[in-house]
Design brief:
single chain; alpha+beta; Alpha-Beta Plaits; Arc Repressor Mutant, subunit A; about 400 residues; four-stranded mixed beta sheet; 3 domains; Bacterial transcriptional activator domain-containing protein; TPR-like_helical_dom_sf; AfsR-DnrI-RedD_regulator; about 15% strand; Serine Threonine Protein Phosphatase 5, Tetratricopeptide repeat; 11 strands; WH-like_DNA-bd_sf
């Protein structure tokens, strides 16, 4: 007698990269709901370490690391029931999926289970550890990158057991990505490099090498303006998040692109048009390296003119003096930028100095007038974004002439 389709055991597919889901046939569950975290944690741990039979003590340490007084028998019995409830939509017996026997817990061995991390790791091992030709390696590289939808179990990224596992697979992803870019660069397939890098920086936004390849591939593919935009986006990101600039290697790429875009011109009218601002409303915002050059220029000028110029700083803090949480800080800094721009003269210059600070140059002004200007900025900021748990502190100091070394 031939077995019916209902007698066949389905293969279970588990995705952990970029999110957690379990699929059997056309039925699927995932952790995108707002259900309690602990039942998912137990399920994830048992699936990932499905080849082991895990003791109650180990699970207690994983699920309740900060509560050593938890009663294993009662807590795990309740949690196992809740985790099995999560599996019911798969139309498979939950007791056969989450198995409890001989005093241990484990994921089923009765059904074949395929994890994306196992497939991903196998591809990385072939590509990175075996001497494959580029023609053999490229399809594997692309398949591996397609599997990596994001970091391992992102909703549990701060769990102690998740951190090392996530770091391991993220490191493999970076190596695979660099290897793929190397192959595609040799083929001068810059459009594909662009697409891969655009996906990769959504996963790893602060990887300068990936951003370098994105800018370079756009440039080589003829998208010069877009390459310059991506360069400036990288500059903004590194300043706002870390108060640093990209490497000289990255900046050298900008010079190459800029020189090609501008070419050689004999028309000053054309050059003036190319230098025009898109908008001349409000104070002039510039990146920190430009601000630093303007600062040096103004300091040189006061040696000759004796004018009074003030360097001012505005800092956003919480009531406790600490940096506010990122979503609140980002919104506050956007509104503060708007207030600075609208409160100053169009000849005034400002920049973002750090994640929570702006710097301003105020020429031909006194200390008292400078304080009035800064208080006006803060007052305008409060009209836009009046959170009682935020403070804006200001300081100002006159520019001093350069200290020249003694001449001997």
């Amino acid at each position: 007698m031939m077995p019916s389709e209902f007698d066949l055991s389905p293969t279970i597919y588990v995705h952990t990269l970029g999110g957690f889901s379990v699929k059997a046939g056309d039925k699927e569950i995932n952790d995108s709901s707002n259900q309690s975290k602990k039942p998912w944690s137990l399920l994830e741990y048992l699936v990932v370490f499905r080849k082991k039979e895990i003791s109650p003590a180990e699970l207690i340490q994983v699920i309740w690391p900060d509560d050593p007084g938890v009663n294993p028998a009662g807590a795990l019995k309740t949690l196992m029931f809740r985790s099995r409830k999560l599996l019911e939509p798969l139309d498979l017996p939950p007791q056969k999926l989450l198995v409890q026997q001989r005093g241990t817990y484990s994921w089923t061995k009765e059904y074949t289970t395929i994890l994306d991390i196992d497939e991903f790791e196998a591809i990385c091992a072939k590509v990175l550890n075996q001497k494959l030709s580029d023609e053999e390696a490229l399809p594997l590289c692309l398949a591996g990158l397609d599997l990596y939808k994001g970091d391992f179990l992102p909703r549990a990224e701060y769990e102690s057991w998740v951190i090392p596992v996530s770091t391991y697979y993220h490191s493999l992803y970076q190596k695979l990505m660099y290897h793929t870019v190397k192959i595609l660069s040799a083929r001068e397939d810059f459009s594909r490099i662009t697409a891969l890098c655009q996906t990769a920086i959504r996963i790893e936004p602060f990887d300068e090498e990936l951003r370098y390849h994105l800018v370079y591939s756009l440039y080589r593919d003829g998208h010069t303006r877009q390459a310059l935009e991506e360069y400036n986006n990288t500059l903004d990101l590194f300043y706002s998040e870390f108060s640093i600039s990209p490497s000289e290697h990255f900046k050298d790429l900008y010079k190459v692109i800029r020189d090609e875009e501008q070419g050689i011109s004999l028309s000053l009218e054309h050059i003036q048009r190319s230098l025009d601002e898109e908008s001349a409303k409000g104070a002039f915002y510039c990146e920190y390296p430009v601000f630093r050059d303007l600062f040096q220029l103004e300091r040189r000028a006061i040696e000759r003119t004796g004018d009074s110029i003030y360097l001012c700083m505005l800092t956003v803090t919480g009531l406790n003096g600490q940096v506010p949480k990122t979503p609140i800080l980002n919104k506050a800094m956007d509104h503060l930028e708007e207030s600075i721009r609208s409160s100053l003269r169009c000849s005034d210059v400002f920049t973002r100095y750090s994640i929570s600070q702006y710097l301003i140059l105020l020429p031909t002004i006194t200390s008292e007038m400078g304080e009035m200007v800064l208080k006006r900025i803060i007052s305008n900021f409060r009209k836009i974004y009046n959170r009682k748990d935020l403070m804006v502190d200001f300081r100002l100091q006159p520019l001093l002439p350069r200290v020249r070394p003694e001449q001997f």
